[in-house]
Amino acid sequence: MVTFGKKLKERSIQEWQGYYINYKLMKKKVKQYSRQLEGGNLERRHVLKDFSRMLDNQIEKIALFMLEQQGLLSSRLRRLRESHDALEEQPDISLVSNLKEEYRAVGQDLLKLLFFVEMNAIGIRKILKKFDKRLGYRFTNYYVKTRANHPYSELQQVFRHVGLGAVVGAVSRNLHELQNNQGSYLSIYDQPVLPLQDPVVDSIRAAVDRLTRSTNFLNFMAKHALIMQEELPSPQDEEGEEEDGRYHFMSLLLNLVNTFLYMVNTYIIVPTADDYSMSLGAAATVCGVVIGAMAVAQLFSSVYFSAWSNRSYFKPLIFSSIVLFIGNLLYALAFDLNSIAVLLVGRLFCGFGSARAVNRRYISDCVPLKIRMQASAGFVSASALGMACGPALAGLLQVRFKIYKVTFNQDTLPGWVMAIAWLMYLVWLAISFREPALQPEEIPKISEESNNSEAVQDVNLEKGIKQPLLITAEEIEEQAEDECDGSEEAVEDSRAPANSIVAAYRLLTPSVKVQLLIYFMLKYAMEILLSESSVITTYYFGWSTSSVAIFLFCLGLTVLPVNLVVGSYISNMFEDRQILLVSEIMVCVGILLSFHVVVPYTVPQYVCSGLIMFVSAEVLEGVNLSLLSRVMSSRLSRGTYNGGLLSTEAGTIARVIADATITVAGYLGRDMLLNVTLLPSLVICVLSIVATCFTYNSMY
């Protein structure tokens, strides 16, 4: 993979060569500043002033050339519009064909201009980031704040590509009208999805989508999955991805089904765990340990499955299915064996079978880039659906019978049902899964290759201009450019994936640590709400297992609609950090409303406060993981100890502590359980809000 400077030189349009950002000159200037500052020969104030002036000049050159080219395209479109109007008065099939070709020619030139804008936008972002990294400044913050929303800002021309939308619209609309639509009164504005569009229009739309990458439900859900992408290949690379045979639709489907079944397995026991514990002679609050045992085992299984997925995907999934089958079998048999130990061992086995790390890794490594967003969104959707279906299924299993000496009731049936489900899945997996070919690792080259995708430490660029173009995957080459002056060993080390949890932790910036704290907080609060729901509702309201199951099912059903609203609307109206802070505050409000301070404790209070807490936590999780996927070091995008593993471990630790809190608090009595378990949630939530305010105030 070549560095950006070489890529810019190779891909730039020759006749426009003088209008691109002079990336090579500015890179040399940054190195010169660095040497002069180290020698004490230059003041920082002079550096900032000089570099700002140089960058302003570069952006002015780009913006004025863009305006000139837009003017030329607009003039051509105006002339074509006149010909189009004349043709409507006197139709001529041969002239229609010629007119369409002329519009296509304008479309091809528009594509060139869009590519020109994209390359320059990437160059500006890279040089700003390089300046901050080499000189230790927060120059990006200052530059974006002062230029982004200024009325005379030329930076907006580049990053908002002002005016290009009108040209895109004119080409698309006229080509649509010139196709066989004379008998239709509908325009492109009346039909969101047009059938049989002109190939040029499709290409333009793809270029604009790549350029804007505006937030929508699909990419919001994909980031929610925290499937980190190491790089964004060129179109040629994408074709190669499909040809190398690594992607197999049925294998992807099997991974998504594995995700769904595991989430069902996690939550199917929640409505009956307290009753099962009491039937084995334990306290109702031991349900916290029963539910949390799965999370404890997942702390370890996430690591070994992540390491195993470096060599295979099929074998870990087979192992996962077998272990989960055994775990559910033990869980179901614990009733007749009258053993709480067997029950806990069964749940531990279920946790040891957690292959979510493999599911994530398969999507990031084997699914072609053009459908990776859909696959990632499918991963989140499968998880949400499993979370809703688990309690609902438990609510349906309200029967009791015996076959020989084996008891089937509401406590044991979840284990039997899931054991059968995993056995059927195992057979399907053995028949249909296709192991992708392992790709050999490339030897990194100092001056030409890099695979670091420092995903958006320049988040301020996106937020200042509200244009996610700044967060493209082109940043994967930056580490090589930053380190090319050092030794070969230093460069290779700087790009190597983390080889331990400790090494991975050292790569975390303060903002990433804050976001992991937020993730810990929301998982803790959600686990407290879900795991103790059966005990709390039985104690205060006398709810049956079916009632608890319906409540949890309704909570689970909110996941996808909430993400739809946030991803499609709210995230386009507000900045991520604003949504983040408001969501944290709403989680805090939900926790406060949940406390039992008024007698009697009512169903509306519990349900409404739980809904506020859960929905706010869901919004918070999506936005937090979206930000986390952009600011985490690219050295955490690959290898065993990757970003997905770190976030999974943070969430799993939160769940373990929450479930342990429920069990410990149970010794104080069920009347104290609610307030005692909510208190740590409140403290952690307040700490996360303070940390968020402090971090973003320092950044912005």
TrEMBL record:
CDD domains, A to Z: SPX-MFS_plant
Residues annotated as transmembrane: 252-270, 282-305, 317-334, 340-358, 379-401, 413-431, 516-542, 548-567, 579-599, 611-628, 676-697
Residue ranges of domain SPX in the record: 2-145
Membrane topology listed for this record: Multi-pass membrane protein
Record's keyword terms, sorted: Membrane, Transmembrane, Transmembrane helix
Family under the similarity heading: Belongs to the major facilitator superfamily.
Protein name, UniProt field: SPX domain-containing membrane protein At4g22990 isoform X1
Lineage: Eukaryota, Viridiplantae, Streptophyta, Embryophyta, Tracheophyta
Encoding gene per record: LOC104718005
